[in-house]
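Changelog note: in this version the structure field was regenerated for every chain. One regenerated record is shown below for reference.
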Amino acid sequence: MTKFSKIALCALVISGAFFTSCSKSSTDDTPVPTPSIYARLGGTTLVADPDNAGQMIEAGRLSYRKVINTTIGLIVADVQANAPGNLSAHFAPLLAETGTTQQNNIAELSDNLTDFFSFNTGGTNAINTYSGLSMAAAHNPAVNSRMGVKANTANYTKFEGYVGAAANQNGVASNTQLYTDIVAVLESLRSTIVQQ
């Protein structure tokens, strides 16, 4: 055996021993922690912001913004089509606004929801920018003039359906753990938002 072959063989044996001793034992029952929803949506990796040329955005935040904007679009389309059980009474003040005022306030709603969900599902930077109301105040027409009426259980279930459809349209399949975890976050807010 040449000197090079002996060195290579020794390196292989040493590295094999190292990786074996550092790997988890097959009997180790310690669960591997599931990454946060934010991390699974792309996390803090910076990507080009398709809505703001030349700017970067965290991939997790961009994923949330896409789902939220799609959700808002589905709600508006349903309201405009006057679909049965739509949420028009809830969004009537906002949708009654016109032009730039409506566009700015819908953009603010999108930003606030993006900040809220990003921070509360593992994002690190949203707390510095979130300026919206608490969930209870935001859904109480006595406090928030842009909320038409208080939500009931059926309204909230309909809203969850919009979010689910928006998640599907943005690449989160219904039969995944990520989808289930997103629904769990929404369900955790139900008792705060449903006020009727």
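Spot check on this record: Residues 151 and 194 are 5 Å apart (CA to CA). The mean pLDDT is 83.
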